[in-house]
Design a protein that fits this description.
This protein is of the alpha/beta class. Helix content is about 40%, strand content about 15%. It is built from 14 helices and 15 strands. The strands form 4 sheets. A 7-stranded mixed β-sheet has the order 2-10-9-8-7-3-4, with helices on both faces. A hairpin with a 6-residue loop joins β11 and β12. α3 packs parallel to α10 and α4 packs across α9. The longest helix is centred in the last third of the chain and has 24 residues. It is globular and about 55 Å long. The termini are far apart.
């Protein structure tokens, strides 16, 4: 049989190989290093919520195909959450769609709303699935770079405005922002909203870290701003808030028209998923405020522990206002290439991190930056900090 001359992988995905997370997690396992690369907790979430999933399994709820849009209990809980937290009123039947995590929500939204030739503006560095989903939709990604300034990362609103062309279809936001930990301010979001209304743009906003904000920082959903509810797809997820990342329960909230469009794409991806877990997350969203306050305080303490340890080890640290990642600059340690640094770090210090350059189109802009996750047990972070001091 003659070998095919055409590459097997769709050309839209040719630039996307094995993710850096798989590479670095394998390196952690091979070297016995502490894995502060991939962002998943090393402990499960609330016992009562885990038992709610077990109860649903035993009661036969969700063991067969759940409704395509998601079980009514979860859609209602999502709508209640948006109303009680942010004053956003959504119809659980027409304006809420349950997805297989935020990753599917992103994919379904972009596949539904973007056509070949459309431009999608994304804040760079970006969560790696954004680029792949834009490519699968046939769109063109247009990165607008967040740049470090006085200990944090900032958005240049003039650069954002200049990036909009007649081909721009939507702005893809992420706040709180992975990997930089930036939380866009009300003033910044207001400027983005005014631009979207002026240029008639859609906005897809990834808000999976909405409850992980520190130091009194305010999370503002852009859908709450004037003119934005009808043009915004808001993405939420249970994994980061409740520490059950393997359950893959996410959702979107949007106008009926946008929800219908996203559902048209989503039904041909997973169709449905996570049946029993949906019932458990419906209960999780109704946990008292004390749960969310405790989660935030615990992660803020871990942020401070790791940030201070990294600074003592010689890194320049950009202390995040949200998420559970901290970005560092490796140049004070005499290094300039994050890939080389992260690939050698397990042997040098027994710790794994992620080079931020993988989250950039402009690789040179991210070259000297490295991301660490702090969603781990305090004793794990303390040991990691102790090991990193070997770099000094």
């Amino acid at each position: 049989m003659a070998l095919m001359t055409r590459p097997l992988l769709n050309r839209r995905l040719a630039e996307f190989g094995t993710t850096i997370f798989a590479e670095m997690s394998a390196l952690a396992a091979r070297t016995g290093s502490i894995n502060l690369g991939q962002g998943f907790p090393d402990t499960d979430g609330p016992e009562g919520i885990r038992e709610a999933a077990v109860r649903a399994l035993r009661d036969g709820r969700g063991n067969q195909y759940p409704p395509g849009p998601g079980v009514p209990e979860l859609r209602t809980a999502v709508a209640d959450h948006q109303r009680e937290r942010y004053g956003l009123v959504y119809d659980p039947d027409a304006e809420v769609l349950v997805t297989a995590g935020a990753t599917e929500a992103i994919a379904a939204a972009l596949l539904a709303l973007v056509e070949p030739g459309d431009e999608v503006i994304a804040l760079e560095p970006y969560y790696d699935s954004y680029a792949a989903c834009v490519a699968m939709a046939g769109g063109t990604r247009v990165p607008v770079t967040l740049r470090p300034h006085e200990g944090s990362y900032v958005l240049d609103l003039d650069e954002l405005r200049a990036a909009v062309t007649d081909r721009t279809r939507l702005i893809l936001l992420n706040t709180p922002h992975n990997p930089t930990g930036t939380v866009l301010t009300r003033a910044e979001l207001t400027a983005i909203a005014e631009l979207a209304v002026e240029r008639d743009l859609l906005v897809v906003t990834d808000e999976v870290y909405e409850h992980l904000v520190f130091d009194g920082t305010e999370h503002v959903p852009i859908a709450t701003l004037p003119g934005m509810r009808e043009r915004t797809v808001t993405i939420g997820s249970s994994g980061k808030t409740f520490s059950f990342t393997g359950w893959k329960v996410g959702w979107i909230t949007a106008s009926p028209e946008l929800t219908s469009a996203v559902r048209s794409a989503k039904q041909f991806l997973t169709y449905v998923s996570a049946g029993p877990f949906q019932y458990a997350i419906a209960e999780a969203l109704r946990l008292p405020a004390a749960y969310f306050d405790s989660l935030r305080a615990d992660l803020q303490a871990k942020r401070d522990l790791l940030s201070e340890g990294l600074a003592q080890a010689g890194f320049e640290v950009y202390r995040p206002a949200g998420t559970y990642f901290v970005t560092t600059d490796i140049r004070p340690l005499g290094a300039t290439d994050g890939f080389d640094f992260c690939r050698s770090l397990p042997e040098r210090a027994g710790v794994v991190a992620i080079p931020n350059a993988v989250f950039y189109d402009h690789r040179e802009a991210g070259a000297p930056f490295v991301r660490f996750a702090f969603c781990k047990k305090a004793e794990v972070l303390e040991e990691a900090v102790s090991r990193l001091k070997r770099l000094g």
